Amino acid sequence: MRYGESARPSARRKGVAVIAAIIAAVTVAAVGLIAVVLHQSSSSTTVSGVGSPGPGLPSSVVTYQPGQSGGADGEGDGNVGGKADGAAVSGTVWPAAGQAAFVRSGQSVIQAGPHQHPAPIASVTKVMTAYLVLSDHPLQPGQDGPTITLTAADVADTAARRAKQESLVAIAAGEQLTERQALEALLLPSANNIAAVLARWDAGSSGKFVQRMNAAARSLGMSDTRYTDPSGFEQTTVSTAADQVRIVDQAMSLPAFAGIVAMPSATLPVAGPVLNTDTLLGHDGFVGVKTGSDNAAGGCFAFRAVRMIGGRQTTITGVVLGQPGEDQIGAGLRAADGMVDRIASG
């Protein structure tokens, strides 16, 4: 089932996942590369440091209010929903519940749906975590980066998180993860224990890392965001869909980040094969980015998709938060899939 997911595959599924990944990764990576090129060619965004985001950062937000007409027509310009840059899109674009926002290549305005308010974002938090790590320790194509040696303290922390039923991957004292492998564990199976490992490795402590997360949020204009942990497990880590579009847009300008979130699976030294919780990957033009879910946050999904709009290949970078449903991750994925369909057909 497309929207179902499991971060810890059974033995029978492991072999299938590895074989499928070899085929799927080639296609998805190619589409993902197109998305990065399209995005960078439509703006001059470069990541020149956490405190100085690139000049292509979306400059403003247009928030849809129920009852408004959606602005002036941009007939023939190929813009989303037939609207010019700066005009709100139709209210029919937005999911029925929760909140959502998006920006498309060639536009500098974030389109935000109704009900924007600071809310828990669960593991979408890890986009900022990965962005900071890669800003401090850039990875070039083919590079795995420095080695991180896991300790008995990391194992004890993992056991404590397992008792709280957090999302994690199995580790062992003395295990060595490259930076790239740690980021794969963070972004694919959504390992909270590796978020803590990366935070301590990068900043010396989770507390100092969280301070840097909030400083980066301020520099990106994320005025309704407050991070209190590097994984998003804490309900006090809150943001809006519009704010999260800003960090997703920045993170996807890093080829290493874009490449990792386009992977269907990865293999870690102790945990073995792990699957990407984003089961939309490779379908309907989706090339990443990060799922999130818990009872406080509902279903969340930060995403990028490549679609044909007005005869042009166009990237749509968006976020949905607070999607209801028993299958929380599936709810977030369905909401994003439907929203992208409506944007592309508008």
Question: Which key features would you list for this structure?
Answer:
single chain; 346 residues; alpha+beta; 6-stranded mixed sheet; two-stranded antiparallel sheet; 12 strands; 36% helix; globular; disordered N terminus
Quick description:
By secondary structure, the protein is an alpha+beta fold. The chain is built from 9 helices and 12 strands. The longest helix has 31 residues, at 11-41.
What does this structure look like?
Helix content is 36%, strand content 19%. The chain has nine helices and twelve strands. The strands form four sheets. Strands 1-3-2-12-11-10 form a six-stranded mixed β-sheet, with helices on both faces. The chain has a two-stranded antiparallel ribbon with strand order 4-7. The chain is globular. Residues 1-49, 51-55 and 70-82 have low confidence and may be disordered.
Number of strands: 12
* Helical percentage: 25-40%
Instruction: Please mark out the parts with pLDDT under 50 across 5 or more consecutive residues, or reply none.
Output: 1-49, 51-55, 70-82
Q: What is the strand content? A: 15-25%
Q: What is the typical, i.e. mean, pLDDT?
A: 85
Based on CA inertia axes, which overall geometry fits?
globular
Physical arrangement of strands within the biggest beta sheet: 1-3-2-12-11-10
Seen as an oligomer or otherwise, the chain set is single chain
